[in-house]
Design a protein that fits this description.
The structure is a homodimer of 508-residue chains.
Chain A (H helix, E strand, L loop, with lengths): L3 H35 L6 H19 L2 H15 L5 H18 L3 H24 L2 H21 L6 H9 L5 H31 L12 H15 L6 E5 L5 E4 L2 E6 L6 H20 L15 H15 L3 H14 L9 H8 L17 H17 L7 H13 L24 H21 L3 H6 L4 H10 L9 H9 L6 H11 L2
Parallel strand pairs in A: 1-3
Antiparallel strand pairs in A: 2-3
Helix pairs in contact in A: 1-2, 1-3, 1-4, 3-4, 5-6, 6-7, 8-14, 8-20, 9-10, 9-12, 10-11, 11-16, 14-15, 14-16, 16-19, 16-20
């Protein structure tokens, strides 16, 4: 008779194998998505949709397979009997959570959501163009109703917004985030106002960010590739391509970044590439041996975003980074930069533009205000204290409070983001949680690695990357965003470090 | 009670839907393969192998699904009762053939072949490098044994080579092809010898193809894209990329060509692109409404190759084509071509190089001799009249007879091709059958469309493409290569037209 330990181990290995298989299947879907954004001939949309649909169907079948359920149950029993270790517990609990999520929803509901998301996208695009919220309102109503049904089915009965959040950041709740955001808002709104006054005064004196025109795209490509490689992105295990909107796709040994090039805005490609490379560095740093299990997955969207923001903002907008980058830029753009001083160049990389209404165009100070606004509205919608019909008015009011301006129409207000057309609620807070975590990691890293900025000035980023690999990447999904932040930084996840960082960099 | 016709129609629609699904799944595998050749980061090989393996497993599961078998059986019964039309018969018979092929082979054999092919590739690559056939011989022995087992299981007991051929060209046999090849050899060897004497004499006089060096690769890209678009390749439904070896992948609305660029050989990218575009035009011309069924698939490899060769050789090496292309080439390469006359340029496109030992480098006259040699050897190996151990000697002997030269070592002889390392027998004859069909189609097209060459001289190719669409592409797999050739050209598939074409173009 085989001993019990080996039976447990075999069952656990079988579970890991099933999870790995699911991950491989998902990675094929991911590649189809990447290819759609990067390569797909314009006439091949329907053909690609058929491929994506079939893959989604196969993924769903594998994710809901009764054998997977039995494998999880077996491992749970082994855990209860003390037969598996702490790592296995992480894997099994996450597998149970995912399995329940996907099996407890009737396929009729899943199909309805997919259909509504697909239709919703087109309704939203038309409504945005027409600046007409009322055309989009029924889609939003239906998505909210579906989200409530999902929450009821998945044991989040009276906390539907928590389910939406938990989907992107396992373990986090609206109450937790709400508390942090109140504190952040209290510090950020005055800071933004102060900066606004300063920028307006500078403008009045005729000062402002330098205009940059006609930057050779081939040279831009060389720069972003050289910079991201230097930060540590491994091009033997990844790529950089062009797409309409920058993104990062893939995992393990095949991580693909995209960016876009604008001859009149060389900093756009630079910073979007660094941002995506931050995501990519995280994916390349997750433990490959655990691919597909919670030990090999990112901790959640907030931590993922902390990685992209840390490299994009704390690192790549710093004086030290620019003292290394400037000579490379001048070598690649001798004519384009001939009239631009080093000070002006670094200032352009740190330009702040108060009064902007569009989230995706916002600088790192104002970006968070856009998020606070959305979180507040999503929370009220889910709580039932805000009706969909009243959403545009509430948006405009909060816009005035937080950004100091009301949108002129719904296209630059309540209809500006695609997320709600697909029922993607609870995603927005991850961005600002990521900014908070990035600032906290930055503080901890500077404490742990005293020579860091000197290294940046020499174009050396291995110290920081190594620290992130050890402190963050290697841990997979063992912890939620709060646990991870506490362990690495010694501080509770919160807005203090972010406010201090923004004050230090933009306060004067 | 529903009437019988509607029951039949429903069953047939269900079968079509299953076949379409299989095709979609196959197209995802195809995309993974394309991406591997075009985009894959060098470190991602293992990850891609896991994706490809899982997709192959899912495809196998779908192709052997009992429900598919039942759907086919149902349709066969409907056909027997006269309940479905001739088109349906084509689809059902092909589905039965494919289903039997894949279900009658035990998975143990399929796995063994996959393993042997994978190992065999590496053994072959090392053996070729070491010029040591004996290292590769055991792989070839095992592949031949597996092919015999497959033939026995699939009802080709005493004709294993016919199974290998039938896989690429449904309905064709070694005996049929052998007869055509004897006739072709009788005409081609003396022609090649005559050309050889002439080329040698020209060389002795210091004449020969003009050297072309330093052709700007960006300009080459523009040329090949413009030319293939002009031939009719629809870039809204396809792409052109770069890979180590040119190929064509995909179908329907997403057909992807690849080529490679060599600054010192601009005709390489040009002709390989046109060749692949010929394949691509066929794929883009197959009836989309029948995707996945025999009505929407290419007739076979020989007909596929006829399309690539027709555009590459008959069209794009013609005087008329060059009279259109030359001004574009001169505009794109003003310096590179400054010392090259129009006559020299066209001569370079029609250069013949006798005495070459490498198939993939051969011109259109000698290429067929390389094929005749391989067909002859495969046939003897399968018949058992040639032992694997004696293969190198037989290769060298035939090489002397047909090409006028013996290889100096196995690397430029018996080990030069990758095909046998993967057990891909019976593929070689398709190339020369394709050349025969291309020449026959060319003869028929010129008869049907008298102004064709005048059109080429004006850069108009829609007449020929339209004719091919109607006569060839629209028919899918309704006919085998013989039936198709007979219907379109009025002549039996054979070497006469090819010999006449080669004589006309290269005889003097």
């Amino acid at each position: 008779m085989p001993n019990e330990a080996s039976v447990n181990e075999k069952g656990y290995e079988a579970l890991r194998e099933r999870l790995r298989r699911l991950q491989v299947l998902g990675s094929v879907s991911g590649l189809l998505g990447w290819d759609e954004q990067v390569n797909l001939p314009e006439g091949a949309g329907e053909q690609r949709a058929a491929q994506a649909e079939l893959l989604a169907e196969l993924q769903h079948a594998a994710a809901t397979d009764a054998g997977l359920g039995a494998a999880i149950t077996g491992c749970e029993q082994a855990l209860a009997a003390g037969g598996l270790d702490a790592d296995a517990r992480v894997v099994v609990l996450a597998a149970r959570r995912d399995f329940d999520r996907v099996t407890k929803l009737p396929s009729e509901l899943v199909a309805e959501k997919a259909r509504l998301s697909s239709e919703g996208y087109h309704v939203w695009a038309a409504a945005r163009k027409a600046r007409d919220f009322s055309a989009f309102a029924p889609v939003l109503e239906k998505h909210l109703a579906l989200a409530r049904r999902e929450a009821a089915l998945l044991g989040f009965g009276d906390r539907p917004y928590d389910l939406a959040i938990d989907r992107h950041d396992p373990g986090l709740t609206a109450a937790q985030i709400g508390g942090l955001f109140v504190e952040l808002r209290a510090g950020l709104v005055p800071l933004a106002r102060r900066i606004g006054v300063r920028v307006a005064a500078a403008k009045a004196r005729g000062e402002g960010p330098v205009a940059m025109r006609g930057f050779d795209v081939t040279a831009q490509q060389r720069v972003v590739r050289a910079v991201t490689a230097r930060l540590g992105f491994d091009y033997k295990r990844g790529r950089l391509d062009v797409s309409l909107h920058p993104f990062c796709e893939g995992s393990g040994d095949d991580v693909r970044l995209t960016t876009r090039f604008n001859a009149d805005d060389p900093l756009d490609a630079l910073y979007s590439s660094i941002h995506e490379a931050g995501h990519g560095l995280y994916e390349q740093g997750l433990p490959l041996a655990h691919a597909g299990t919670a030990l090999g997955l990112a901790a959640g969207m907030a931590v993922h975003e902390s990685q992209s923001r840390l490299w994009e903002n704390q690192v790549a907008r710093s004086q030290a980074f620019w003292s290394w980058l400037e000579p490379m830029m001048r070598a690649e753009f001798p004519n384009e930069l001939s009239g631009v001083s080093g000070v002006a160049l670094h200032a352009a990389a740190n330009a702040v533009e108060p009064g902007g209404l569009i989230r995706v165009d916002a600088d790192e100070v104002h970006y968070n205000l856009h998020i606070l606004l959305r979180f507040e509205l999503e929370r009220r919608l889910f709580a039932g204290t805000l009706k969909v019909a009243d959403l545009p008015g509430a948006w405009d009011e909060l816009s005035e409070e937080m950004l100091g301006r009301r949108p002129a129409h719904a296209g630059e207000g309540v209809l500006q983001d695609v997320h709600w057309s697909g029922g993607a609620f609870g995603y927005f807070p991850s961005y600002t949680l990521g900014n908070m975590i990035a600032a906290q990691l930055w503080t901890a890293a500077r404490r742990a690695l005293p020579g860091l900025e000197g290294e940046f000035a020499r174009g050396e980023f291995g110290g920081l990357l190594g620290w992130l690999r050890t402190e963050v990447h290697a841990h997979g999904r063992r912890e939620d965003a709060f646990e991870l932040t506490k362990r690495v930084t010694g501080e509770t996840l919160g807005p203090k470090a972010l406010l201090a960082y923004l004050e230090e960099r933009y306060g004067n």
